[in-house]
Amino acid sequence: AKAKGEGSIEIFDPSMNAKALARFQMEGELRRALERGEFVLHYQPVVGLDTGRIEGFEALVRWIHPERGMVPPLEFISLAEETGLIVPLGTWVLEEACRQAGAWSRAFPADPPRLMNVNISARQFQHKDLIETVLDALRAARMDPGTLKLEITESIMMRDPLASLEAMKTFKSHNIHLVIDDFGTGYSSLSYLKRFPVDTLKVDKSFVDGLGKDPESTAIVAAIISLARSLGMRVTAEGIETMDQMVHLQKLACDQGQGYHFSRPLSREKAEELLGQDPRW
Ligand code: C2E
Ligand code: CA
Ligand code: CA
Ligand code: CA
């Protein structure tokens, strides 16, 4: 019922309507899911590549939808980010991950203590209350701040490098560890990189995939590891699926690894079973 000229606004496009409606419904569902407690965390072991032991976990959120079953984060994190729901959801993730880490540090003590990694989204990182939220979660869980690791992507940090630097210094002053997640996929400026108080670079799965098969990926992984070394940072490789990739990373003296080769992300119960076994890979 309207002109289809160049530059016209297609308010009546039925497919647009369907998309907008689906989004709107999903937003309402997400809001209710938070109120009803439909989210759970799964935990993926982070393994020392020299010792083969569990040195920590990454907390990964899942939505247990009453009809659709388990919904992976890629299907709701970006909507949660756009609508701002990521802030209360992220607070819940921090509280739950800290509660779990505190409980595990007492039930399954380790020397050195295991770390808990928590992903922080852009909106959360920019929120003025984040540091308070983190410190409250640590206190409530009786968790040592030195065993919490926050994962922040390069692109989040580079949106406002100076503000990021200030926020990161505050976290460091509380002894909280910082990881640059998905390293290599963004556009980090190397001059900033050395100023950020970052403990660990996490090599993105897309480079680990090609290790030993494609010379470019192999060279990039080697370069990231030597860059990290010269900046005094540690390196974790994500998405390790094969023995071959693990051996390559060990040869490159990569510190830690995560991936299906060791373990998929596990429910709390399965993670506790694994902690009880204290496996060596
Ligand atoms: P990410 O932070 O890069 O997390 C790693 C993802 O790779 C996880 O997917 C994990 O299950 C998957 N993965 C681990 N090892 C392997 C492997 O060997 N092979 C393959 N194919 N995949 C592997 P997941 O849990 O679906 O999470 C996807 C993304 O959603 C995460 O990517 C992260 O960006 C985001 N996310 C997950 N949980 C949270 C959260 O609590 N807060 C925020 N802000 N983001 C989250
Ligand atoms: Ca991550
Ligand atoms: Ca990652
Ligand atoms: Ca990734």
UniProtKB/TrEMBL annotation:
Residues 23-279 form the EAL domain. This is EAL domain-containing protein. The chain holds residues 333 to 613 of 613 of the full protein.
